[in-house]
Every structure is written in C-alpha cells, then in structure tokens.
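Tripartite tricarboxylate transporter family receptor
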Amino acid sequence: MTAAKRHAAPARPGRRACLGWTACAAALLAAALPASAVHAQEYPAKPVRIIVPFPPGGSTDVAARILAAKLAESFRQPVYVENKPGAGTTIGAAYVASAAPDGYTLYMTGPVTHASSQALYKKLSYDALRSFAPVGNITASPFIVVVHPSSPAKTLNDLITAARKQPGRLSYASSGNGAAPHLATEIIAKAAKVDFTHIPFKGVGPALVALLGNQVDFMISDVAVMPQIREGKLRALALTTAEASPLVPGVPSMAQAGVPNVDLGASLAVFAPAGTPAPVVARINATMNRVLEDADIRQKFEAQGFEVKTGTPEDLGRLMAQEIQRYGEIVRQTGISID
C-alpha cells in the first residue's frame, strides 16, 4: 500500500454529486458534525423505554405513562413504561445504570429515594450520582400523612399522642425500605420523639391496599392517595412540607400540625445511564420541557396532585449532589437502616 493510499482523506461529496447548493451544504455539514451530534439529530430512531422502579398503579407509574404518551407523539416513536420494582428502587436503578448509554433506556424516580439509597445500601452495583446522566425534573408535590377514616386520629397531634402512650404499637405502611415515605416517617418520628413500627411493601399500591383494609394505622404517601382522600376513603392529617399546598387544600403543613423543622417534599425526575451523549440528553430534556407546557398534560398531572416543575439537566445534577449529601446526613442522624 502506498503512502498516498494510507493517508487518503475520507471521501467528500463532489460538486457533481450534489444536486444543488442546499444539498451540497447539508452533506458537508453532516460530514463536519461530531458523531454524537449526528446521533442526536437522528434520535430517536427506535422505541424508547422508561424504567419505573415501582409496581404498576403507583403515582410514579401514572406520571411515567402520562409523560410517555406525550413523548411518543413528539418523538414519533413508541415510548414504553417498564416496571422493575423491589429493593427500595435499587433493582430498577441498577438495571438502568448498566443499560446502553444511548438514550433509549430512561429512568423515572424520585430524587429523594434515589439519593437516599446511596446511604442506605452499602453494596450497590452503581453510584447514585456518577452512574447516571441527569435529564430533567418533571414534577413537585408534598407527601401526605393519611389514616383510615375509622381511625380515632383526627389530627397529626392525635396520632403522635397515641404513639407516645403506646411506644412501637402504631404501625405504618411504606412503599419500600429506604423509599422516601419510609425516610419521611422516621424523620417525623425522631422530631416528635416517638416510635412507630414499619411495614414495608413493594410500592405505593400494595401499601395503600393495606391501609384501605385497615391493616396498618397510617402511612405517608405521595399524591397517589389523592383520589382516596377526595372520595373520603382516607383522611389526610398533614403534609410533610413546611408550608401548606394548594394541591391538597385544607390540609395543614408540618409546622401547622405541631411538628416544626420538618420540610420534605416529593418530586419526580428523569435520568439516563452515565455516558449518554450530551446532545441526546439535551434533546430529551427539551422535548420533555416542551410537552410539559401543554395544557392537557398539565391538567392530567394536576388531577393526580402533581405540580409540573421542569428544569435543565444541570439543575437536576446540582439537586442530586445536594440531596445525596442531605439524605446521607439524615440517614446517619436518624439511624435508619434497611431491615
């Protein structure tokens, strides 16, 4: 092989090959673009999956399906929701962390749960920060303390008073060990200086069934319980945030309910595997933000008790760094451990 052949430059479209100036310019531009930028222009070229680390029927699952339907319209490709529950969301997270970083496997979860797993689980196969590429926030909402309507507790103070009289006797359901409602309940218990007995389930749905069946005394849930509150099947005692919310009218904040210095909100966000090309992440983020401005999708989220709250990948990255530090401290201070 001659030196000329060894060092020959890649073929470029010649003038005769280009049908007009516009086609020639487009071809030359494509040749000059980085591979990741070309990939982003073509994305998505096949169906996209959103992994949800909870069973079907919970609020995260519902939110993912609302978003997936709108993304599919914009992408002109199917967007599927796939449920991979268990182990406090770490099964779903591990699956996404090991997926191909091409933008076709996304992860929807709560930043609080995702951040706290770093402190709660000692042998994770992934790092909650470094193994993921933040894509963007979707929603914000409060957690809600709820009881069965037959419960003698009419207020949060009633519940705490009963717990003080019978330490460890009152039980609460949660969506899983290490999930945000588990953390929120233990933080409130520590603040109020009481003990509750934790009954973990694999997702909000099964935990909610237990409370509706009067098998546990209370639970802290995200907005998945809003329909039951509206129908009188559950009684809301308080929100876990420092301020009341128009999303849950008439329900007091933690401070208003007599437990100051507790402020724990819920949110949902989307992540991709680390190494996903930045232009692809930017395209997904821009598409999400655009569809979330749609009045129809906002109405659907608000009907579930969510407030739409978007942002950039950088916003979510900063939030995750802060939340990992914050919940690491909370786990150490409260002594929460995985059963």
